[in-house]
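User: Teach me something about this protein's shape.
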Amino acid sequence: SEDEMFELSSLLNFCKEENIEFNVLSAGLDFFINPVLEKYKNKLKVFCNDGNFNSSYIKIDYKYLPVDCKLCGNCGCCKVEIIERYSKEKFKRIVIGDGLAELNPAKIADLVFATGNLVKLLEQEKISYIPFNNFHEVKEQLQQALTELDKEAKA
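Assistant: First, the predicted structure itself:
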């Protein structure tokens, strides 16, 4: 919806101002994802599979298959291994999600924002999270979390 896109835009602007790299990780295909995110391409990075149209049928180029994932190892796009490229020592790793595909990434994240089915899954696994209904709430909670982290760093 238009509201959701405005909220996403606001969240992305906030992340850019705070020097937070915003990545979209999806097992979906580039020709579905990129058109939706086109106007934000200078504010985020997309990790997804590519549709290859170089023959008479569509071939999927799986660029992020798991190599050595200890948590699942059998998905079409290993979000865990992508996140692990960002070392815990240098980065705060934040996951925003709504389902099973974000459960394993949540296990290695510093902060998790959850909605939908992911809430139930995280509760079953006893993983802490911040619930959200929209990107505006994520932005507000992220601002608060950054303030808390600044206080801890200065203490």
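Now, about its shape. The radius of gyration is 16 Å. The chain is about 40% helix and 20% strand. If you'd like, I can walk through any region in more detail.
User: That's plenty for now, thanks!
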